[in-house]
Specification:
Blueprint: H1 21-49, H2 54-74, H3 87-90, H4 94-114
Helix pairs in contact: 1-2, 1-4
Length: about 120
């Protein structure tokens, strides 16, 4: 992950940190790709294990929670060095990942349990 832009100046306590837009955009791509990939993997696992109904969505919430913790750990638990807010790591890409999860969940369930 790319770090925020330090211009070499001594920062005071009242100064707002500046972020390089390219680095922030690159970090957000990592978050989106990670969430999409983990949604696909989680959907396949939920489908193979035969989860149906609400239990499948609980698996999705669990996968997204694990993904958020892993992304935070990857950033060294110093989110404000890489993102402008906690919401970027915790919530961004949540609904896009849900669509991928449902697609691969139903696909894997159909292949394993119906055919």
């Amino acid at each position: 992950m790319a770090n925020h832009d330090d211009s070499g100046k001594k920062s005071s306590e009242n100064e707002v940190p500046t972020f390089n837009a390219e680095n922030l955009q690159s970090n957000m791509k990592v978050v989106y790709y990670s969430r999409t990939f983990m949604s696909i993997i989680g959907g396949v696992i939920a489908g193979i294990l035969g989860f149906t109904g609400l239990m499948g969505f609980v698996v999705y919430l669990l996968v997204m929670a694990i993904t958020s913790v892993c992304l935070t750990a990857r950033a060294g638990f110093s989110i404000h060095s890489y993102f402008d807010s906690w919401n970027r790591v915790l919530l961004d890409g949540f609904l896009g990942g849900l669509l991928s999860f449902v697609l691969f969940w139903t696909f894997a369930y159909d292949i394993v349990h119906i055919f």
